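Write out this protein's structure.
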Amino acid sequence: MIKTTLVLPKDFWKEVKIRAVEEELGIARFIMKALEEYLRAKPKPAARKGAEK
């Protein structure tokens, strides 16, 4: 695991906290779950020439 910092609009952060409570998840787990679902649903774009891994 890694630890990171995000800068988010206040209203967005408030909605994240509300949804995490509604789903009975901690905020970190809620965000991880949302990102996992997003990454599974969205097809990977073609690799760009010269792009770093």
